[in-house]
Amino acid sequence: MSEELPIYTPRPALTLVxxxxxxxAVFATLRQRLTAFLATLDMTVEVIFVDDGxxxxxxxxxxxxxxxDPRIKGVILSRxxxxxxxxxxxxxxxxxxxxxxxxxxxQDPPELVLDFYQKMREGFDVVYGVRQxxxxxxxxxxxxxxxxxxxxxxSPLPIPLDSGDFCLMRRRxxxxxxxxxxxxxxxxGMRTWAGFKQIAFPxxxxxxxxxxxxxxxxxxxxxxxxxxCTFSERPLRWSAVAGLLLALGSMAYxxxxxxxxxxxxxxVEGFATLAVGMFFLSGVQLLSIxxxxxxxxxVHNEVKRRPLYVIDERVGFTEAAPQPASPNTIxx
Length: 332
What we know:
The chain has 10 helices and 9 strands. The protein is an alpha/beta fold. It folds into 2 domains: 14-232 and 306-331, Spore Coat Polysaccharide Biosynthesis Protein SpsA, Chain A (Alpha-Beta Complex); 234-304.
């Protein structure tokens, strides 16, 4: 029996990529908003949902909508690989000349994609959203503000402040990101690294339309560490500088003690100083080892060369699965 050949279809003008994880509670509202938004477009469009190992009925809802509307497609991952990996899977399967990334919880309003598109027609390659106001608790808002400013301070790249993954990119920018082989993905940093002509689009970020956030504190901390360790080597340099300064300080203090012993008959009292110094140096050493461990752990993951994700099912696609320049995926 001859193998069925994939059907070639022209590249759509726009692709929307929406990572999902247990979004059953918000899916009906999301579908209503997206349907209304798609009705306003006078261009060919595809919508790709990337299900990141949901435990609820999100994959079933994606399959159902895809059967009813050929523009709706789904990439069902074999387990939960993480938000940034889900975004990566969506970009790898996107075929549009322009590709938008937005959250499925409607905190990134889909209606703004059209404003992004109009801005792109002015000659920009990337239009990214910058959050002016966030409807979240004060601690989370403060944590985000601190993170983005620390990352901007540490990184040699001008990573935009208060910008997430919500953006619209031309095809050539998406291709650059798809060809990046690293396993620890920080898409907004990779987008900045790619270069080209970029512009910010300020917007007010609303609260989730329904359900609860799936980004726990540990996940946010992991994302922050990925961003810092992937785009800056300054923590390593600073730990080396701290070690050098402490060594010089210890030498100077030792010289002071030696001179004191030579010119004075008084007893040198120093137990408290010695104890505090030992605890301080131990803390600095453990901190430096921890920083080194974060970088070394990422090197370990890189050299294993495992694929970024495993696709369990592709829903609604008539084209063959993409073959990226880097071996990032397995189609089960």
